[in-house]
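Regression test attached.
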Amino acid sequence: MSARIVHIASNTFREAVRDRVLYNLIAFALLLSGAAIFIGQISIEIERLVVVNLGLTAVSLFGVVIAIFIGIGLVSKEIEKRTLYTVLSRPVRRWEFIVGKFFGLAGTLVVNTFFMAIGVFAALLYVAHKFSSPDAFILVALYFIILEFLILCSLALLFSSFSSPLLSAVFTFSLFIIGSFADDLRGFAGMTHGIARWFATAAAYLVPNFSALNVISAVAHQQSVAGQLVLQNTLYALCYSAMALSGAVLIFERRNLK
Amino acid sequence: MNGLNPTRRRTTVVAATCLAVSMAASVLLLHRVDEIRPRANIEDALYISSPKLVKRASLGFEGLMACIYWTRTVQYFGDRHARGSRSYNELAPLLEIATALDPHMIPAYQFGASFLAPAPPSGAGEPRRAVDLMTYGIQHNPDNWHLYYDLGFVYYTELKDYKAAARVFEQGSEVPNANPFLKLLAARMAEHAADYETARMLWTATYESSKESNIRQNAIEHLRSIRVDEDVTRLQEAVSRFEQLNGRLPATIWELAAAEHLRGIPVDPDGNPYVLSLDGQVQVANPEDFPFVTKGLPPDYKPSGLPKFHGNS
């Protein structure tokens, strides 16, 4: 990775920290500690399930919100503040700017997820009093959530490269919703015929498949996650992110910034 | 605040006071509003009764939704049970949604069946739906022997279908790592299903296999009631023997005890002597203390409300 990309990425990370993005960790800590303490009093025998399900769902949703709302402003904010012209007047290529922004946001989310993961494991230790070996699969679920963030970051950047922040947020969030129903979409495709089947199948493969990256329920029940799934999901997320990022670069390279 | 000029300091004080006052006022007003309008109950909240729709709406976070629905189920049942309600209309739908969202949530089946099956006010009085719930649970968790045990238990205690209970216990005994008493229970169902000893075995197994205090207390109450039923049956036989020998009923429980050469007056698990009515019926002194007894109740007795639990007595 070129030094210029690293600089842009680290600046993006610093900017996110300055924007107090990591403050969401406080809300997360309150949510999880509250659940860990109170759920045992209002429910029966699901303390561990709640901590894992709530913890991982919160990691995912907090991250999705951050990925979307920071991702959509990464390009447009630079244009609005006119800082983009300063950056591009230096020996920085447009694609390096986009890739740097992507890594900066991804890094922010990884750091955020790391601290949240500590919170999840601390709450788990509080309710279960000890760790067991299947708890290690929670790490796989967290890894899949990070893969989900990579896809969302790249999509947010893609829309941000040609659209307004509001529309970018709408597009990215819509794709997040549709991607969560990707398996159903494939099911619908299987039920249709002719050209509709082609369209439905194409749509099912074009939208990101977030349901394949969701193993929260399985790890909450201490079920294992197949190594092949980890490998294939990793490759899928990298390919999809590369695809969206390439699209963002293509559009941004041709965009008239005057 | 020391660095602020007097005007800004005054503004800060006024704003802080306003904040505190308005916060307190809004809490008080909300309290008043709650008193005026009817309280929202779970029926209002269960506006989506389709498990499939709830699953779709959860956006892939079914696990968390299942936990929420299970907690709502517990709250719903607990609230109704505490009020001595005999209507649990939303219990089965809530359980169906929770288990459809997470078919591996074992507590929802185990506790759900014990909420659904018993007759009101102890439960919803819907043993058939409890059977459906447990059958669904076994379909999705075929290697969990506890579910077979609980299903057999519903067949035995609520439906008195001993054949079905024997079949389910037998199936459960074939599950890897199943508790050996399932095999024993299956065998007893075939010949001694109605015996007190079989009932005692089942409730003892329930007590020993559960960590949940409510379930253990419930098992204790049933074990206490089984002992009373046994005592009353035995004493009633003694009354019949006395009548055959003497041509009259025993005048008092003391006379009966003496005729049977008992060491003392027969007492219930709480130490209270059994009562002999004028027409020769053996009765328990305080029926309220034995909510699950089937014998020894005064003819006109009606339980006043919820079963009274005695803890580890």
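Expected vs. actual: identical. The mean pLDDT of chain B is 83.
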